[in-house]
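Incident log entry.

Two folding requests arrived from the same account within the same minute. Monitoring flagged them as a possible duplicate submission, but the sequences differ. Recording both here for audit purposes.

Request one:
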Amino acid sequence: MEADAAAAAAAMIARARAALTPLGALPPELQPEDEAAGYAVQRALHEQVAVRQGARVGYKIGCTSKVMQDYLQIPHPCAGGVFATGVHSSGVSLPTTGYVRVGVECEIATRLARNLPPEAAPFTAERVAAAVGACHPAIEVVDDRYVRWETLGAPTLIADDFFAAGCVLGAAVAHSALPDLLTVRGRAMINDEVAGEGTGADVLGHPFHALAWLANHLAATGQGLKAGELVLTGSLVKTVWLKAGDRVRMELDGLGVVEAAFV
């Protein structure tokens, strides 16, 4: 996709996101024809939204579990950006009016202590694990900001950061104190009722497999992950869509809890 077309597509997406206007199909001449073009638009979008959303501080990985692949009908992982203004601490209250249709997912977030530069690829789960400084129990906040997402296709969803709208983080657990992430069980609690459950094994077999996928995906276009960046490794449960007044609590055994209210 030509740079001018990617920038024009990104500008349309950025305007819709800022205005909370549901995004429909892009004009034919601006639609990314494949996922590589979708990521080209996404990179242009990140440059355009930085003024309003702050610096990109990491990434989210979507479609890492079978439950989410089945739900979205996309059989492989997809990545999006996480921005400074969208990162919150446990206990936050967030207005539902700040989203088109807000939802939440139960995640294990990683915080990198070391760079994963593109020249060091290919990466394995073992290699990226050594770069992780800590993990957090996390709520990924997602936004269905589309007229009908089922009709847009993966390239356009990727261009718009694949539903990403921020996250809420619980306390960090240092790498040396981490439980076996393979067997960590997560529960999504909405208003004190269980809305979904899963384990770390549901995330591409292990959350560090998802992190390795992202590192290799970025390396393919000459990009890397940097120390201090946050990576949301993918949901253990199917997305839960919310309404005003909902209270969210994600419990991840051995990692802790994270809570938020949507008002």
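Request two (distinct sequence, not a duplicate):
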Amino acid sequence: MIRKCNEHGYFRGETCPACGVEGRYVLDDDREERLGKFVSGALRHFPEDVGLKMDHHGWVSLGHLLDVLTERYRWGSKERLIALVTSDRKHRYEIDGKHIRAKYGHSVDVELESDYPENKLPSLYYGVSQEEVDMLLESGIKPIRQTYVHLSTSYERSVEAALVHTDNPVILEIDADSAQNDGILVITANQDIALARSIPAEYLSIVENEE
């Protein structure tokens, strides 16, 4: 559920995490999920299918997205779209004036390298299944259904991400410092996620124990 606190803005849950007030209702769980799936698909995977024109950096017109949204959902509104974006705990989207985009997760071809800062962390992490680990240690990490490889900025975050796909993940550590010194560009999408076009096998190792 998304609600709005007059002092702290939009939030998810029953009460504002900053001050504990209940706030004003904006979206229930069902509509939040439906709106979230639509926005994710439109900004990451099929903009042209819903009539949106996306530039090479992933931006689309906020007004055009809103037009498509309100035509599809009678209850859609600009406030509800803004609430969905600004309350997102994973920081998946960003708005810049009259434009909006997904920050990561694209399957359409986008170029984000010039938009985000270069990664500063010496190590990054990537969770895989037991069945995948040997193949990745031999051939490296490459995107499958996405434009970029999504790397976690912490061990804990990599475990959380991997558990969505496998019950017993193996966590790989990426020597980001060496990779970047060797010319592999790694950029920071948000506090949890870094992006790269690929990571060669020589920069990977298995994390034996949680740090």
